[in-house]
Every structure is written in structure tokens, then in C-alpha cells.
Specification:
It is a single chain. By secondary structure, this protein is mainly α. It contains three helices and two strands. The chain has one domain (about 10-80). Helices cover about 80% and strands about 5% of the residues. Strands 1-2 form a two-stranded antiparallel sheet. It has helices spanning about 10-30, 35-55, 55-80; strands at about 1-5, 5.
């Protein structure tokens, strides 16, 4: 993807490193249940999404998740 003069493409080694971090952090999240492992997994998925689909769709997805989480919290408070 090219934005102006900037190219958002990962080198093969960096892409492999992002995939490795994502799978290792997912395995750590499933096995040891640490917040740091989950946070590492979330950050690696966000980085992967930025370089796969672009910054705008990634930010849109994060915004939709944020709004849906807020609506869910408000509805939970109203219904209890």
C-alpha cells in the first residue's frame, strides 16, 4: 500500500518476526494467563492489521470495538 511517497510494506524478516511474536504471545496467553502476554498479543495483532489492511481500516475497527464496548457497559449498568 502506498500513501503519498510512503510505502507501508514489511520486509519478510520483520513480517516473520511479527507472526512469531503473535503466535508465541497467543500460546503464552492460553497457557499462563498473564496480562502482559495478552497485551503483547493485542499489540502484535494491531501491528499486523496496520501492515495488512492499512491504518485507516485498523483505526476504524478499533473505534468500532471501543464504541461497542462502551455501549455494552452502559446497557449492563441500565439493566442491573
Amino acid at each position: 500500500m502506498t500513501v503519498g511517497v510512503w510505502s507501508l510494506e514489511l520486509d519478510g524478516r520483520v513480517s516473520g518476526m511479527v507472526w512469531t511474536v503473535m503466535f508465541v504471545s497467543l500460546a503464552a496467553t492460553v497457557t499462563i494467563h498473564r496480562p502482559a502476554a495478552f497485551l503483547t498479543f493485542v499489540i502484535s495483532v494491531i501491528v499486523r492489521c496496520i501492515f495488512s489492511v492499512g491504518i485507516q481500516p485498523t483505526l476504524t475497527m478499533l473505534g468500532v470495538l471501543n464504541v461497542s464496548h462502551s455501549l455494552n457497559s452502559v446497557l449492563l449498568l441500565l439493566l442491573t
